[in-house]
């Protein structure tokens, strides 16, 4: 485990690491302020890359657990831009964060809290809500690691959008200030009220209407309306077709491949039996009413589906579930859960099942989660047991087009992400100690903005290193897929 430049005594927190002894509010405030004496807020500006760091080597090592023929697709997607590289480089950044000053104040981390891992989706009550939406790397750890990854992502995308240095810094500061002030607000609330807190897209539009240009408001309303049509039925039309009276998944290799094409040497009845066993184990992780709902559907077909950037190469399956009524199908995503990139630096998960780790972290950080969220374990054709988590393939989900944002819009978006991340951390960490550590001044904000600038510079160098590795043949990339 890399040495940290500074350390602090961990503050008792109501997180997955175990129950702490009850402490008074005054004691929790004192804990937060004491942490400043050991690791100052100004110190979070520090980033000194280790001479021995090898981000490409870390990516190559990580790829050993992935599907070999899809690894070049991952590198090809990371080659698109510095931000595309950043999206796939959660592991190198985790290694870098482990060398920075660490507050000792822990919360449940997203682990990959860049700006594109926030977005809108449907709540169980069919409201369009805004929240963190990716938890593959979730694990308890130092709260500032999520803040730093989020802040650096805004600096990187701001540069790609041709913002000036001043505008980039203002965007980052807006996000960090929102995080800090939201945490201070949550510290003054009853804990149960923090758990009820959430962001509805309709309320967001209403709140920011006076601060957003009319064109921006209209575009956001249009995206929100379109999101409500982006459900399993829309995906069904894109990914399946009806042949001989049966709905079947359309093959589009290497992005979508029916399971019988992925494993042509395995008898179809064996493949079907394995997938039904997978679904059966998953069903047992749902609460009773949702198990009842799932029983309405039966497995019709499965396919391997390439998703995202950083996740490419992990095993991800799409399940076509047939309803009792043919007009009521369901699409589920079964995504492999490997060890978190944070594990080597924050300690291993308390969960022996990585799918359960992802689901538990998602429930802890999200205000409202997909009703089909669960986990399962299944052996592959190579005989290796692998962990998965399951959710709906798409349910009103949409992400704002950050690559098209101008500075005022991105500042609004940064505030939304900052508030949302603070709410997530306030649910799992000691919000009172965190608020005391952050304080009422902009000291922490400026330190994180300095770090974001420095890490955006490093990210550009790492992106160039990946391109050189492709040119030198150290790694193979498949562009345009």
Brief descriptors of the model:
47% helix, 19 helices, alpha+beta, 481 residues, single chain, six-stranded antiparallel beta sheet, 2 domains
3D architecture notes:
With 481 residues, the chain is α+β, with helices and mostly antiparallel strands. It has 2 domains: 39-227 and 399-472, no CATH class; 232-392, no CATH class. It is 47% helix and 14% strand. The chain contains 19 helices and 13 strands. The protein has helices at 25-38, 55-63, 71-78, 82-88, 90-97, 143-160, 165-187, 191-196, 201-208, 214-227, 232-239, 259-262, 268-283, 288-294, 343-346, 354-365, 407-428, 431-438, 443-472, and strands at 106-109, 118-122, 128-132, 139-142, 199-200, 240-243, 246-249, 256-258, 297-305, 316-323, 330-336, 374-379, 385-392. The strands form 4 sheets. It has a 6-stranded antiparallel β-sheet, sandwiched between helices. A 3-stranded antiparallel β-sheet has the order 2-3-5. It has a two-stranded antiparallel sheet with strand order 1-4. The model is unreliable at 1-17 (pLDDT under 50).
Topology of this protein?
Layout: H1 25-38, H2 55-63, H3 71-78, H4 82-88, H5 90-97, E1 106-109, E2 118-122, E3 128-132, E4 139-142, H6 143-160, H7 165-187, H8 191-196, E5 199-200, H9 201-208, H10 214-227, H11 232-239, E6 240-243, E7 246-249, E8 256-258, H12 259-262, H13 268-283, H14 288-294, E9 297-305, E10 316-323, E11 330-336, H15 343-346, H16 354-365, E12 374-379, E13 385-392, H17 407-428, H18 431-438, H19 443-472
Helix pairs in contact: 1-18, 3-4, 4-19, 6-7, 6-17, 6-19, 7-17, 7-18, 7-19, 9-10
